[in-house]
Amino acid sequence: MTVKRNIYLRTIPIADALDKARSALDRQNLVGVESVPVEDCLGRVTARPVMARLSSPTYHCAAMDGIAVSAQSTFIAREGSPVSLTPETGFAMVNTGQPLPKGMDAVVMIEHVVLTDDGHALVETPVAPWTHVRRIGEDIVATELILPRRRKLSAYDLGALLSCGVWEVDVYERVRMSVIPTGDEVLDYTTRPEPGPGQVVESNSIMLCALAQGWGIDARRRPPVPDNLESLSRALEDALDSPAHIVTIVAGSSAGSRDFTRAAIERFGEVIVHGIQAMPGKPSLLGVARGKLIVGAPGYPVSSVVCFEELLAPLAAWLTRQEPPSRPEVTVRLAKDVPSRPGLTEFLRLAVGRVGDAYSALPLSRGAGLITTLTRAQAVAQIPPDKEGVAKGEEVRAHLLVTPQELERTLVVVGSHDVTLDLLADELMRLDKPMRLASSHVGSLGGLAALAQGSALLAGTHLLDTATGDFNFSFLDKHLPGRQLVVINLAIRHQGLIVAPGNPKDIQGVASLARPDVRFVNRQRGAGTRILLDYHLKLSGIAPTQVLGYAQEEMTHMGVAANVQNGGA
């Protein structure tokens, strides 16, 4: 069977995609109303107004520990000339919350009462009627409106509902989502696999389910489905037959020859959006079948998250008559230039911390497949489609992914990469008042430049002065002249060439890099390791052009090691 290949006819703005989906869905029939016990209603949304069944309190009660009295009996009391009340008719001992005895309308606090040996109570200060008394219906009157419709119920709301005799509430159903991971290359994590070449552990589905649960969506993951139209169609039909309101298909929404999401949807319904003006997240897809929403989330994890946050979550909120949760915003200053593609809204993830009187933002790697940018980011900024990027030092608004307090406890480190920084980051989190290390690996010279520009508090550097054989200090004088600096010797390390286990190429030193059978992977320009390598190449009389792979760059030592491990160098 020949399957028509996906073609993006026209990508549309995110807002237009949401409008199309809302127009195509009948939320009145899709998401129903159910009566739920109050104790199970946290985070649910009221479908109808809620009226009080009981008043609160239901009786006149003492608001303080003391004696209940008739206020009129105390009117003549004066300091030095107390009123003496008898327990038979003049007062009654009460504790907070107890009903007032008949004929009494005030409470005198116990600390303002003198109890005599013969059982009388002496009161020197007159009290007005209803002093220290909670009257019937003071808080809530039976039949009054307690909560309106479309109210997301908080813990406080649950307490108020029970206090006025409401035991069950009519709420919108919790949105249910079925998640179908796809791909011939993905391995089900439940089998604890060890992936080989061309294989990856499937993780997007669990990430999306966890995101959904954080937004109040009941998400269920299904087993991975291979890149096969018939298999995907069967899985989709099964999900459409389930109680799910939303079906999310992970991967397969792009334009590749093995992407079948669109074709599968069109067997049961229609595709209403295929491609949004976003980066990452462009291949996102929306469809409708049997009255249910179908979301095609791209396979790359960052793209998948953008699809969830910008499309799926707002639509799920709309189904239950809510506004999407908002995140706090801060103004941040970009630490480096960020070019962007016009015509697309770019979602730029940032590591952020305070430097001086401003928040400095380090743009993280922008690959849609780099899941670590999600774990390392403290904020995300949007570059609008009418801009070609953001200049270094420019201020932009960013949505926080952490609390504002965490930004104040974040140290911004820019410069050379070393695993010591990872160990330091963990040690900082062990403090009684933990601190986060936000680092960007741009090389030693990049770190000094960041210090000079006020974009970082710390810079990792190991720069060899080839003229003197010393490290770092001559570069500090050159790039940070006259600045007050503290130089910390964080670590002393040995550097060398990373080779495959057993050294199958018999690499003996820098001279071996000139051999035609040896492929090399380099560090980026400005890295101290690159400067050290160039120094040793020069000593060995080897030109960079003689080294196969000299122009292939990695930003970290770990990236270099991964290339060697996988045979890329």
UniProtKB/TrEMBL annotation:
Reaction equation(s) it catalyzes: adenylyl-molybdopterin + molybdate = Mo-molybdopterin + AMP + H(+)
Family: Belongs to the MoeA family.
Alphabetized UniProt keyword annotations: Magnesium, Metal-binding, Molybdenum, Molybdenum cofactor biosynthesis, Transferase
Pathway as given in its UniProt record: Cofactor biosynthesis; molybdopterin biosynthesis
Top-level taxon of origin: Bacteria
A cellular component annotation (GO) from this entry: cytosol
Native species: Fundidesulfovibrio putealis
SUPFAM superfamilies referenced in this protein's UniProt entry, alphabetically: MoeA C-terminal domain-like (SSF63867), MoeA N-terminal region -like (SSF63882), Molybdenum cofactor biosynthesis proteins (SSF53218), Periplasmic binding protein-like II (SSF53850)
The protein, known as: Molybdopterin molybdenumtransferase
Uppermost EC category: transferase
Gene Ontology biological process terms, A to Z: Mo-molybdopterin cofactor biosynthetic process
Record-listed E.C. numbers: 2.10.1.1
Cited PANTHER family: MOLYBDOPTERIN BIOSYNTHESIS PROTEIN, MOLYBDOPTERIN MOLYBDENUMTRANSFERASE
Role noted for this protein: Catalyzes the insertion of molybdate into adenylated molybdopterin with the concomitant release of AMP.
Name of a matching Pfam family: PBP_like
Residues covered by the MoaB/Mog domain: 178-318
GO molecular function ontology, one term from the record: metal ion binding
Reported cofactor(s): Mg(2+)
